[in-house]
Design a protein that fits this description.
By secondary structure, this protein is mainly β. It has a domain of 130 residues: Immunoglobulin-like (Sandwich), CATH 2.60.40. The strands form four sheets. Strands 5, 6, 7, 10 and 11 form a five-stranded antiparallel sheet that branches. The protein has a four-stranded mixed sheet with strand order 9-3-2-12, with no helix packed on it. A three-stranded antiparallel sheet has the order 1-4-8, with no helix packed on it. A hairpin with a 3-residue loop joins strand 2 and strand 3. The protein is globular, with a radius of gyration of 20 Å.
Amino acid sequence: MVLKNVTVYLFFFLLCEFVYAQGIQDRVNIKIVPEHVYVEKGEFTQYLNFDFLIENLTEEKLRLTEILIHAYDNENKLICRKMINTNGFNPSINTIGNTNLDIKDSLFIYNPFYHFDQNIIINKIHYEFYLISEKKEKFLSEIEVRPLYYNPKTNLILPIKERMMIFDGHDFYSHHRRFDLTDPVPIKVGATANPGRYAYDLLCS
């Protein structure tokens, strides 16, 4: 009897997941910004400097409830699994700011999984975006990212001999990264990309 109940529960769970996965892949569009993603190597960490533009093509208001990622190496082995969701008293999904999508509206998401250990090679990352409507209908939209490892051919040196300090860089919390393409100002000037994505503000002593 216990085995039968477990089997029924497992079937119901898989059925729910199947219904979830049938969601709105064609009704919620996800774009990577910029289109080509490069790995930026730090001393101890490697960074992925890109974001997401989510477009709600439905006639319903939606709310983003979870982002789940699976990262794979060159042998297609799972090397990392991370998520932010609505679990907890102060859920991790709150760290990305606004999660609501109006009808036929867009939402700009700064990629919350922007750094990985230096000693791993990332071949691809599979992103799953879970959303829910006001009618409690659940949706799933997915996208795959294949970051590029770029090795510069020339060492670039600033033509300044004085001691310098980086006042603000282009890390996740930098103002150079905070360029929301759905904001009225970028829309007004016709911006389709972040011109300061890799910018530095320097101070000379």
